[in-house]
């Protein structure tokens, strides 16, 4: 039971059943590009193509229009990566390995200045609510790196030969701490067992909780879209990451 968390608030849905994660203590995001056009509505064509191929991502995002379409629940595994070997199931490593496909082409460098990143604040907050650190894990296809929590690309997946989504400008995506700004994206996580709440805001690389009693927390609670009910394990992981 992780309402508001399994499915991204505000994203359209076209649900497909995913697989079972292996469950190691690993929480990551994997970026892809669709190698398609990014005109309004193109996202639906990408969804039907990957469903036909059986190579679904969790979430499709068009950063030129802000359109979001989720196919697979966050706690299940997606199918957009090749297995590194018969026994190495690249898609299933960890507790969260959320695969996000940018609708667009690698050559356009959509995550390195080539797109306006419309909708990124909400997507960033949702990824943080799953305890995914904003740590750069790109740069090699090594298994040890793949099994480190943080930000990955298809280009870095063990046993895969794709080069999408091209470069990621970490300073642009993750460098600016939006919690310091008025109207910054925030999610309140609520422990499904105890009801305890923390405000997840952004201070640099990680989604960090601000504590349980603050003016910001009261503001975020006023908007139900910003509350994610999470399991004990997820709650503990996020609060632990907050130090
Ligand atoms: Zn890919």
SSE blueprint:
Blueprint: E1 12-13, E2 19-20, E3 27-33, H1 42-53, E4 59-62, E5 67-70, E6 76-77, E7 96-102, H2 110-114, H3 120-129, H4 143-146, E8 150-153, H5 170-175, E9 187-191, E10 197-203, E11 206-209, H6 215-221, E12 227-230, H7 232-241
Parallel strand pairs: 1-5, 3-7, 3-8, 4-7, 9-12
Antiparallel strand pairs: 2-6, 4-5, 9-10, 10-11
The structure holds zinc ion.
CATH fold label of the largest domain? Lysozyme-like
The portion of residues forming beta strands comes to 15-25%
Determine the mean pLDDT.
85
Q: What is the number of strand segments?
A: 12
Number of H/I helices: 7
Number of domains: 2
Shape: globular
Q: CATH H level of the largest domain: which superfamily?
A: Peptidoglycan recognition protein-like
Which class of the largest domain in CATH terms?
Alpha Beta
N-to-C span: 26 Å
- What is the annotated CATH architecture of the largest domain? 3-Layer(aba) Sandwich
Widest sheet: strand ordering = 1-5-4-7-3-8
Q: Uncertain runs with pLDDT below 50, 5 residues or more?
A: 178-184, 202-210
Which structural class is indicated by helix and strand composition? alpha/beta
What integer value in Å does the Rg equal?
17 Å
Describe the protein.
By secondary structure, the chain is of the alpha/beta class. It has two domains: 164 residues, Lysozyme-like, CATH 3.40.80; 64 residues, no CATH class. It has seven helices and twelve strands. The strands form three sheets. Strands 1-5-4-7-3-8 form a six-stranded mixed sheet, with helices on one face. A hairpin with a 2-residue loop joins β10 and β11. About 7% of the residues have low confidence. The protein binds zinc ion (ZN). The site of zinc ion has 5 residues, from loops.
């Amino acid at each position: 039971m992780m309402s508001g968390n399994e499915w991204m608030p505000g994203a359209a849905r076209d649900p497909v059943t995913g697989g079972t994660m292996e469950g190691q203590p690993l929480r990551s995001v994997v970026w892809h590009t669709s190698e398609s056009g990014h005109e309004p509505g193109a996202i639906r064509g990408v969804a039907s193509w990957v469903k036909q191929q059986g190579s679904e991502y969790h979430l499709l995002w068009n950063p030129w229009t802000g359109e979001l379409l989720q196919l697979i629940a966050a706690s299940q595994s997606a199918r957009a990566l090749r297995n590194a070997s018969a026994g190495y199931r690249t898609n299933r490593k960890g507790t969260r390995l959320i695969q996000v496909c940018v609708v667009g082409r690698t050559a356009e460098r959509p995550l390195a200045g080539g797109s306006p990143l419309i909708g990124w604040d909400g997507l960033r907050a949702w990824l943080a609510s799953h305890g995914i650190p904003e740590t750069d894990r790109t740069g090699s296809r090594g298994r040890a790196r793949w099994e480190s929590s943080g930000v990955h690309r298809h280009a870095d997946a063990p046993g895969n030969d794709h080069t999408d989504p091209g470069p990621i400008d970490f300073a642009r995506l993750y460098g600016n701490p939006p919690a310091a700004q008025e109207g910054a994206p925030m999610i309140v996580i609520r422990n499904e067992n105890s009801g305890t709440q923390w405000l997840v805001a952004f201070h640099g690389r990680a989604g960090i909780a601000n504590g349980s009693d603050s003016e910001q927390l009261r503001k975020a609670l006023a908007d139900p879209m910003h509350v994610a009910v999470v399991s004990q394990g997820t709650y503990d992981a996020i609060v632990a990451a907050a130090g």
